[in-house]
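A student in our group prepared the protein record below, which I am reviewing. Here is the record exactly as it was handed to me.
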Amino acid sequence: QVQLVESGGGLVQTGGSLRLSCAASGSFVTVNTMAWYRQAPGKQRELVAGITRGGSTNYADAVKGRFTISRDNAKNTVYLQMNSLELEDTAVYYCNANVVIGVASYKYWGQGTQVTVSS
């Protein structure tokens, strides 16, 4: 069984910062691409940022220059540093990981962590 446990969400004022963490645990060979998604009320879940095991990253246009995704492969953990937060960043943030078990790859989701930005 693989679990993704997220932490770091909370309430912050506009212009503030938060750092999210997501750790993968369980029985698996390795963790490949990891990513953060978010879902605001009444909207579809959208990709925020992704990072390969080798460190290549991609970002949604809305967060470029403000958010930074990183990972620690030894800890199977991905981070999302969020700076200059805006009201529009309010959402539930979900961690996603492609986990290799045996010879197959499976996609797992975390339980979500709430990020609320207030004025």
About this structure: The chain has no helices and eleven strands. The two ends are 41 Å apart (CA to CA). The chain has a mean pLDDT of 97. The longest strand covers residues 91-101.
